[in-house]
Design brief:
The strands form 2 sheets. The protein has a 5-stranded mixed β-sheet. A two-stranded antiparallel ribbon has the order 5-6. By secondary structure, it is α/β, with parallel strands linked by helices. It contains 7 helices and 7 strands, in the order βαβββαβββααααα. The protein folds into 2 domains: 155 residues, Peptidoglycan recognition protein-like (Lysozyme-like, 3-Layer(aba) Sandwich); 58 residues. The structure holds zinc ion. The site of zinc ion (ZN) has 4 residues, from loops.
């Protein structure tokens, strides 16, 4: 097995292509992949079983075997199911599986995610079929519709994490507004002569806030792009 050479930048969802009620576990899938395919280990990093139990497969630090050419820098999460009783692609996720997937994506976002432009922790989440050139239905549902292009934002909200919890303190606009207001008030109270007429002082404060806004937007954009 190879270690990742890139930082983790996306979570990829899969299904096991098993029929409803078939409770496959990680040991069985490991046999498919090791004995059947001749791989070193199970291809997925996590399996979400029918009852929502999350089982660990390949260690996260190693590249999985789940999307051709896209194993470096991605974590593979599979759920048990994905085809109907007749074998057609079907979203068979149980309520327990849906909840467990959200929990797991949330954890992974906090482990690998970056702050998005709104200061929330987020990571890209894709379905196997979303990659170019993949002619499979896996994971048999629209990942973007359920989790958004950056699912973990939703997960952060669901778990009660707010902007204030996750945003670095210096990225708070309120902080800067108040800091500038206090500085202006203190200057006024102590009659510090800023050498500006009243209109000039208002313009100076507005200009400082404009610069702060631009810097915050640029730095938070960068934090996302860096991933
Ligand atoms: Zn797949």
């Amino acid at each position: 097995m190879r270690r990742h050479t890139k930082p983790i930048e996306a979570i990829v969802l899969h299904c096991t292509a098993t029929r409803p009620g078939r409770d496959v576990d990680i040991a069985e899938i490991r046999r498919w992949h090791v004995d059947g395919n001749g791989w070193d280990d199970v291809g997925y990093h996590y399996l979400v079983r029918l009852d929502g139990t999350i089982e660990t497969g390949r260690p996260e630090g190693f590249q999985g075997a789940h999307v051709s050419g896209q194993n470096d820098g991605t974590i593979a999460v599979a759920y048990a199911g994905g085809v109907s009783a007749s074998g057609a692609p079907s979203d068979t996720r149980t309520p327990a599986q849906k909840a467990a997937i959200l929990d797991l994506l949330d954890e992974l976002a906090f482990e690998y995610g970056a702050f998005d432009v709104d200061g929330r922790l987020a990571i890209r989440v894709l379905g196997h079929r979303d990659f170019p050139g993949v002619a499979k239905a896996c994971p048999s549902f629209d990942v973007a519709a359920d989790y958004g292009a950056r699912h973990a934002v939703a997960a952060a909200i669901l778990t009660g994490e707010t902007d204030m919890d996750t945003k670095p303190f210096w990225a708070s606009k309120t902080l800067w507004v108040n800091a500038v207001a206090i500085a202006a008030a203190v200057a006024g109270a102590f009659s510090v002569d800023l050498g500006l007429d009243p209109e000039g002082q208002v313009a100076a404060v507005a200009a400082i806030m404009g610069v702060v806004n631009i810097v915050l937007r640029l730095t938070t954009d960068k934090a996302v792009a860096a991933k």
